[in-house]
């Protein structure tokens, strides 16, 4: 709390590292809605603390950020699919954006123009939005269209609603529901909890490969090891592949060999492999509900299982989700606070909930981007998580954690 920061700043020894941190935190918190004032205060702070380590989390030089700062936009363009196969996600983002605008009491002073990107020439549509006075652009959503707009020049701040591998031009920011970012957070969390040897279970294909790679790079960078990976296919008999992956068949075969050697029946208890202490599970709910009971059945019920938000539909369904009991996963605060009733929504879109929150935060960033430019690592707390700005102009999220217990999700604190 700001009152506590003030007290700590007063109590800290003049010129000390602690005093520098407290004063910098106060600048970020007290003046976040006044960019010019915040910039001047940071300049004064740097004069007072020229060798402080806080300088490393600020833009260098500080003046380099000035061209990127912008006034509160009075004209905003939403480039979203409002018809066609992505109309559902597009509508959810639009609804979230509109709700946040209404809640801000600025609806009368901000004009929002909608542009339907379904089957559109998105580069021409982007230029049309600029020509019609847009001061801030949100969208597009689909990866191919995001790549097209990312390659353009951006006369105004542009919030691209998906993650792409290519770098963006200046003034454009990637803000998607990045599963790779989630996988990295799973790796950090599991490592902090003391685990070092992971089995990975993930779907075969591009999505699975991309997310597993992100997990593995983060996991191995901390000295931990990926022991083995199971890439399951859509039509696999999961009972068989999970049993083989845990080496239960080897254990049963040894029992049969012993029986043949000594010539009589013996009582043998099948065992699983012993070379791992944690499991990373990447799956949508329907597959996760099949895999978790199999892990328990094949003697791995004592091993912690971590997943991304993909494992949770976002809707309360205690009967079905009882099979997920024990599974720990990361998700946005909004989902934990607003678990929906049952909803028919394609699994790969996960839930209306997360896209709605993405829309809300897209509006919030029209005011918060300046703050993130000045304090990229400090983060701002929003519906989809604590948002911070990476060096590659990606707005990443720090997520919350939950666990399934008796079919219900309980937030972990």
Topology:
Blueprint lengths: L1 H10 L5 H14 L4 H14 L26 E6 L6 H17 L7 E6 L5 H10 L4 E3 L4 H8 L7 E3 L11 E3 L4 H14 L4 E7 L2 H16 L3 E8 L5 H8 L2 H15 L15 E4 L3 H16 L4 E3 L10 H4 L6 E4 L1 H5 L14 H23 L5 E3 L2 E5 L5 E4 L1 E6 L2 E5 L1
Parallel strand pairs: 1-2, 1-3, 3-4, 4-5, 6-7, 6-8, 8-9, 9-10
Antiparallel strand pairs: 10-14, 11-12, 12-13, 14-15
Helix pairs in contact: 1-2, 2-3, 4-14, 7-8, 9-11
Beta-strand content estimate: 15-25%
User: Which sequence of SSEs, written as H and E, runs from N to C?
Assistant: HHHEHEHEHEEHEHEHHEHEHEHHEEEEE
Q: Give a count of the beta strands, DSSP E runs of length 2 or more.
A: 15
Report the total helices. Answer: 14
Helix percent band = 40-55%
Structural class, by secondary structure, is alpha/beta
The parts where pLDDT drops under 50 for at least 5 residues are none
Shape: globular
Which short descriptors sum up this protein?
single chain; 413 residues; alpha/beta; 7-stranded mixed sheet; 15 strands; 42% helix
Task: Explain how this protein is built.
The protein has 413 residues and is an alpha/beta fold. It has 14 helices and 15 strands. Strand 1, helix 4 (87-103) and strand 2 (111-116) form a beta-alpha-beta unit. The longest helix is centred in the last third of the chain and has 23 residues, at 352-374. The model has no long low-confidence stretch (mean pLDDT 91).
């Amino acid at each position: 709390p700001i009152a506590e920061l003030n007290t700590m700043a007063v109590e800290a020894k003049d010129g000390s590292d602690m005093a520098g941190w407290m004063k910098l935190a106060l600048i970020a918190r007290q003046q976040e809605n006044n960019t010019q004032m915040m910039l001047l205060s940071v300049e004064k702070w740097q004069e007072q603390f020229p060798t402080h380590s806080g300088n490393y989390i600020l833009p260098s030089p500080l003046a380099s950020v000035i061209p990127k700062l912008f006034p509160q936009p009075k004209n905003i363009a939403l480039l979203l699919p409002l018809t066609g196969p992505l109309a559902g996600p597009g509508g959810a983002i639009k609804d979230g954006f509109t709700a946040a605008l209404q809640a801000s009491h600025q609806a009368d002073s901000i004009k929002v123009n909608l542009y339907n990107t379904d089957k559109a020439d998105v580069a021409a549509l982007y230029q049309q939005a600029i020509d019609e006075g847009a001061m801030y652009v949100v969208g597009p959503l689909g990866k191919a269209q995001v790549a097209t707009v990312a390659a353009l020049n951006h006369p105004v701040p542009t919030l691209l609603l998906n993650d792409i591998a290519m770098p963006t031009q200046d003034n454009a920011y990637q803000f998607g529901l990045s599963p790779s970012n989630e996988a990295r957070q799973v790796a950090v969390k599991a490592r902090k909890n003391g685990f070092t040897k992971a089995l990975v279970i993930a779907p075969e294909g591009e999505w699975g490969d991309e997310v597993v790679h992100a997990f593995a790079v983060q996991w191995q960078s901390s000295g931990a090891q990926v022991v083995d990976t199971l890439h399951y296919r859509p039509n696999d008999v999961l009972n068989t592949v999970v049993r083989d992956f845990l080496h239960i068949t080897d254990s049963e075969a040894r029992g049969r060999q012993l029986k043949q050697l000594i010539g009589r029946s013996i009582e043998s208890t099948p065992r699983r492999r012993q070379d791992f202490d944690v499991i990373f599970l990447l799956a949508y709910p329907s597959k996760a509900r099949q895999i978790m009971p199999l892990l328990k059945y094949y003697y791995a019920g004592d091993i912690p299982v971590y997943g991304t938000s993909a494992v949770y539909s976002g809707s309360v369904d205690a009967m079905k989700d009882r099979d997920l009991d024990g599974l720990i996963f990361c998700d946005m605060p909004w989902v934990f606070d607003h678990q929906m009733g049952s909803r028919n929504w394609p699994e790969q879109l996960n839930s209306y909930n997360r896209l709605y929150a993405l829309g809300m935060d897209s509006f919030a960033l029209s005011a918060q981007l300046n703050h993130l430019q000045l304090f990229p690592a400090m983060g701002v707390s929003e519906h989809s998580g604590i948002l911070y700005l990476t060096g590659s102009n990606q707005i990443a999220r720090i997520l919350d954690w939950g666990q399934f217990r008796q079919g219900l999700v309980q937030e972990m604190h």
